[in-house]
Inverse folding.
């Protein structure tokens, strides 16, 4: 391994960590960059796969040509072929103009197919053909076109299982997997987790103009290292942001940490018999955190809906037109606050994500319930002290007063 090259790439892309597995992944990316081989990046969700294709493209002979990243999991099945391979005018209802498609647009460059395991079988067949022959056909056309695209793909699904289940073509898998790069899970990266915490704490402090970033005690560092991080770096980033923003204490102890991550033992190390049992506590704090997050999300959603409605009022056309959604890159949306356990990213799929009025009402009712419960809980916990309850709920006292009124809680003697 050329250590100094690897370090230089990590600096260039802001990659933090020094574990063997991470360095190895960056090293392989550098080694294969100058070849034309297909690369398949595997690893759990949130491990940081998306930087690898950038490293490959930027260090390849194609670096001055186009680079596209396509999230195969976020494009509706009905449009994915036309997104990737283009279509002719009138190929299907709504195809007013022609579309070049990523394989045409990326000619000479690199195409990153993220979440490739999500591709429908029919698209897999087209993809195999273009990989093997460089030929493809637009939807609604019979002309064979040529393209020269380097493919880097990524997946967090178990491909062996997907092949066994008949969801992924074995021949395509071998074609994509010429060079495999495995991004290790965060729990396998030892001290990296502490380095990453420091980086995210610094980033957050800077972003929000905080006087100083949060720090970890020695014991808290151990706790971070023994936690299994099912959502990997993405989860750690979210947790660090939450702590940075919500914690009044700036020196973080394991006790404070346990408010943000579940407290159950995670290593298979032998747990001393007289170790305090904390499971009940952990479930409590887990639930509370979840409530807190839902509460915040609810407020965000309300704001967003207001915004969308305002904008809908301004335009006659819908805000998110099909053209816009399918036109440029597929958009992946990660909520800013994600629960501290299995994290899945939400993906905007276009209009279908807009709810019907009935759905909206239903959701509002249950969210109202939830909000009410949270307020009651916060008031009870703080013995009716509204200022403290508001602080805990992360809303202004004024909003809390308003909500207490709205829910009639002032009449309930809380
Ligand atoms: N080693 C790392 N150093 C700094 N940030 C990282 C690292 N690995 C991942 N991240 C950040 O974590 C988040 C998730 O990474 P991403 O590449 O989207 O994961 P996935 O493997 O799910 O595609 C991103 O915000 C990314 O910038
Ligand atoms: Mg990803």
């Amino acid at each position: 391994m050329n250590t100094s090259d690897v370090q230089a790439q990590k600096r260039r892309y802001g990659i933090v960590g020094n574990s063997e597995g991470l360095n190895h992944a960056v090293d392989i990316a550098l080694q294969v960059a100058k070849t034309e081989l297909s690369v398949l990046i595997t690893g759990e969700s949130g491990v940081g796969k998306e930087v690898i294709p950038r490293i490959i493209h930027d260090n390849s002979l194609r670096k001055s040509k186009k680079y596209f990243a396509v999230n195969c999991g976020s494009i509706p099945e009905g449009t994915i072929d036309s997104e990737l391979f283009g279509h002719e005018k009138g190929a299907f209802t709504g195809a007013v103009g022609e579309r070049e498609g990523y394989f045409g647009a990326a000619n000479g460059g690199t195409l990153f197919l993220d979440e490739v395991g999500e591709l429908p079988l029919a698209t897999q067949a087209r993809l195999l053909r273009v990989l093997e022959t460089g030929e493809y056909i637009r939807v609604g056309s019979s002309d064979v076109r040529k393209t020269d695209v380097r493919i880097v793909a990524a997946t967090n699904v178990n491909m062996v299982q997907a092949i066994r289940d008949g969801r992924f073509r074995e021949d395509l898998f071998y074609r994509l997997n010429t060079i495999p790069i495995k991004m290790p899970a965060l729990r396998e990266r030892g001290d990296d987790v502490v380095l990453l915490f420091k980086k995210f704490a610094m980033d957050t402090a800077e972003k929000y103009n905080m006087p100083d970033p949060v720090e970890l005690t020695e014991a808290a560092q151990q706790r971070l290292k023994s936690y299994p991080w099912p959502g990997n770096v993405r989860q750690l980033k979210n947790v660090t942001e939450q702590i940075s923003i919500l914690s009044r204490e700036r020196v973080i102890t394991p006790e404070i940490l346990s408010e943000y991550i579940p407290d159950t033992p995670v290593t298979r190390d032998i747990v001393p018999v007289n170790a305090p049992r904390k499971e009940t506590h952990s479930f409590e704090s887990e639930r509370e955190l979840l409530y807190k997050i839902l509460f915040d999300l609810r407020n965000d959603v309300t704001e967003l809906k207001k915004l969308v409605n305002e904008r809908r009022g301004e335009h006659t056309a819908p805000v998110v037109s099909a053209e816009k959604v399918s036109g440029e890159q597929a958009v992946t949306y990660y909520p800013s606050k994600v629960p501290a356990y299995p994290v899945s990213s939400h993906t905007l799929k276009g209009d279908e994500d807009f709810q019907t009025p009935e759905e909206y009402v239903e959701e509002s009712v249950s969210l109202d319930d939830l909000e009410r419960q949270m307020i009651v809980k916060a008031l009870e916990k703080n013995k009716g002290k509204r200022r403290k309850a508001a602080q805990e709920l992360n809303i202004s006292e004024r909003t809390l007063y308003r909500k207490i009124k709205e829910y009639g809680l002032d009449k309930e003697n809380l």
The pocket of magnesium ion (ligand 2) is lined by residues 49-50, 114 (CB under 6 Å).
